[in-house]
Amino acid sequence: MLAGKFYTIVTQQQPDAQSVNTTIALNAAHPIFEGHFPDQPVVPGVCMMQIVQELVSGVVGKKLLVQKAANMKFLNMIDPLQQPQVNVDITYSTVEEGVKATAVIKHEATVFLKFQGLFK
Q: Which parts of the sequence belong to the ApeI dehydratase-like domain (predicted)?
């Protein structure tokens, strides 16, 4: 779990029953950046996905795992020194197979991750 150590939630709003908009602060001093990469930190793609997974799990109230990634695009790198806070916008719906979700991690006009998939 990355919440509380790798990132913290700054604000979280649920504009409706099937969406959540969260601003998170990244911990640029986290040990993961010593290996990814020294003197030029970059948030690993797997960490971006873990953040989405944790936020979806939190909003539906149960632990979920990614079952299917229909679309996953890493468009830009997140440097926690340049973008110490990012926004994670998620829309989701409960379906028979689990929870379908669409997520975007961004800062202002820069999009870092676009994801569409299924959690169960």
A: 13-92
User: Is the whole-model pTM more than 0.85?
Assistant: yes
Residue 47, helix vs strand vs coil: helix
78 CB contacts (<8 Å, ≥6 apart)?
A: 26, 42, 43, 48, 86, 105, 107, 112
Q: Could you read off the pLDDT of 60-114 as tens digits, one per residue?
A: 999 999 999 999 999 999 999 999 999 999 999 999 999 999 999 999 999 999 9
Residue with tokens 């649920």: 14
User: What structural domains does the chain harbor?
Assistant: 7-119 (3.10.129.10)
Is the distance from CB of 89 to CB of 104 less than 8 angstroms? yes
Determine contact, residues 56/101, Cβ cutoff 8 Å: yes
CB distance 98 to 67 below 8 Å: yes
Q: What's at 31, amino acid-wise?
A: P
Task: Count the neighbouring beta carbons within 10 Å of the beta carbon of residue 7.
Answer: 24
